[in-house]
Amino acid sequence: MILTVTPNPSLDRTYELPGLTRGTVLRATTDRVDPGGKGINVSRAVAAAGHRTVAVAPLGGPEGALLTRLLGEHGIEAAGVPIVASTRINVTLVEPDGTLTKVNAVGPQLTGAEAEALLEAVRIRSAGTDWIACCGSLPRGLPPQWYAELVARSHRAGVRIALDTSGAALTAALRERPDVIKPNAEELAEAVGRPLATVGDAVKAAEELRERGARAVLASLGADGQLLVDGTGTYFGTARVQSVRSNVGAGDASLAGFLAAGGSGPAALAAAVAHGAAAVQLPGSVMPTPADLDLSAVTTTPDIPLDRPLKEPAP
């Protein structure tokens, strides 16, 4: 069972447009609303794979009530922590060539009591959990050390932690030695304070984060693939993708695949790559089911192409 923690969840509204022209009235060809937030996306992918998952999140207002209902429709048990403010709504505009324009709301501000209630909800629901996945930005009212406190408490309870966040929250949490962190290339560059131009640069950055406390680093490099750097070695995974429809939630799907496959080693990396590749070929933030996965299109290797330039260098 995988428990997810999403401190700043959302309702994700996606519009597919024939084109995006500023200052005009646009009519969508399709639209959808999905439960959103990085941890909730992980729960959706875990549930789509047929595994049990519980989603812990602060939920408020009619938006929070709708989010709870949508989670139930996805087969996810919602462990909502009531808050006074309303859950945020994010909007994604998708053009025919796959270009995305995202508008993310800032989200509610949590009180000190609500922040502590969130930690307590994780403690109560973590019994029998294989992994806790803590994902996304921290809402207003939660200090950067909040994730570090969550990692420390969870480790004292004997539960493994996967952390997908960035900036000061990631830096603060490293000292508590999260079992897995999952940065993308931009977050990896930010964490080490230098640009990444090659796969080798990404490997060095991941190794540095391990030296600073992370037990394993699963790094998403976009179209270039994914890296896994842990105590057993370094592995590189890629997949053939026919066409990209939407990359919203693809990294979250990757983390779900990785954890559901055990959370370590090249087999888990292959599952992560397969989930991410499947997700980018689906609309909006739809999470892949087992029928969408194509492991035959995935390649993993310990022979890292260190000199390969990144298609999307991280500044």
Kindly describe this structure.
The chain is of the alpha/beta class and 315 residues long. The protein has one domain (2-18, 29-314): UDP-N-acetylmuramoyl-L-alanine:D-glutamate ligase. The protein is 33% helix and 26% strand. The protein has helices at 38-48, 61-73, 112-125, 146-156, 167-174, 185-192, 199-211, 250-260, 265-279, and strands at 2-5, 10-16, 30-36, 53-59, 77-82, 88-94, 100-103, 131-135, 160-164, 180-181, 196-198, 217-220, 226-230, 233-239, 298-301, 309-314. The strands form four sheets. Strands 5-4-1-8-9-10 form a six-stranded parallel sheet, with helices on both faces. Helix 6 crosses helix 7. The longest helix has 15 residues, at 265-279. It is globular and about 50 Å long. It starts with a strand and ends with a strand. The model has no long low-confidence stretch (mean pLDDT 94). One of its GO terms (molecular function) is 1-phosphofructokinase activity. It comes from Streptomyces yanii. Keywords: ATP-binding, Kinase, Nucleotide-binding, Transferase.
